[in-house]
Amino acid sequence: MFKTLDVDHINVIFNGERILKDLSFSVHKGEMLGVIGPNGAGKSTLLKVILGLITPQEGKVSIQSTNKKPVIGYVPQSRLIDADMPIRAWDFVSLGLPNMIRPWLTRRERNKVSKMMEETDTIHLAMKPIGKLSGGEKQRVYLAQALARDPDVLLLDESTSNLDPDAQEAMTSLVHHLCESRNIGIIFISHDLHLVKKYAHRILHMTRGQYIIGKTEEIMKDEKELSLCLHPPYSDESITSVDQQINQEINDERIRTY
Ligand SMILES: Nc1ncnc2c1ncn2[C@@H]1O[C@H](COP(=O)(O)OP(=O)(O)OP(=O)(O)O)[C@@H](O)[C@H]1O
Ligand SMILES: [Mg+2]
């Protein structure tokens, strides 16, 4: 399997607090890496580092690309779209095309937009105003826009979190299909362990300043404990004990793999 993304010893400190500590991993072509971890663990920060929006204090990110410049597709955690925004879904997707400096589209570009909308099952929404679409429809349009630039790597930050369970499953299954059919590397952040377990090839589990990465079966071995750690039901004590155990395992380097 060919690598498409290398994250190499990244360190990020905000206001004296270390958010990402010596984080290193790779993503391969055709691989979906699920990222899990509690609120504030640094998951979105990691994606922003990959996007070049945050410069780490140490470390580097490299993307292997057949294009002149590596291309990253990104679907952010939240997006404020005015319900009355006078832009059709089709035009919204076309904004994702690379080098859009002309005010018109070539036939090739128009075909491309249509193809992306067909692939994401949004072509029937093409003429509707983007602000009037449902949450699930909007997310699929955002995905179509991110794909329009033929990304080497696709980053999804909780892009299904506001959808109902069926729509979440449909969107993640679509992303999984695109990952394989386009042979691109995908990083998707999710709090839904069921979806991550079903669709991720590997999992990166982040806690503040600590991480483990491994095959999905390996990381999900103690799914119940993991779930407690991510969604603590009663007290901080249970998180602390699970965190302590995970940190101990990291220290032992028993399940730390690259
Ligand atoms: N630009 C910034 N300046 C200062 N602190 C920041 C900045 N961006 C993020 N942080 C802090 O870094 C920590 C990690 O934030 P991040 O958004 O990466 O968490 P997350 O894992 O994505 O959480 P969530 O699951 O809630 O989305 C948080 O404590 C946040 O307040
Ligand atoms: Mg986040």
Automatic annotation (TrEMBL):
SUPFAM superfamilies: P-loop containing nucleoside triphosphate hydrolases. Keywords: ATP-binding, Nucleotide-binding, Transport. InterPro entries: AAA+_ATPase, ABC_transporter-like_ATP-bd, Metal_Ion_Import_ABC, P-loop_NTPase. GO terms for molecular function: ATP binding; ATP hydrolysis activity. It comes from Terrilactibacillus tamarindi. Coiled coil: none annotated. Residues 2-233 form the ABC transporter domain. This is ATP-binding cassette domain-containing protein. PANTHER family: METAL TRANSPORT SYSTEM ATP-BINDING PROTEIN TM_0124-RELATED (PTHR42734).
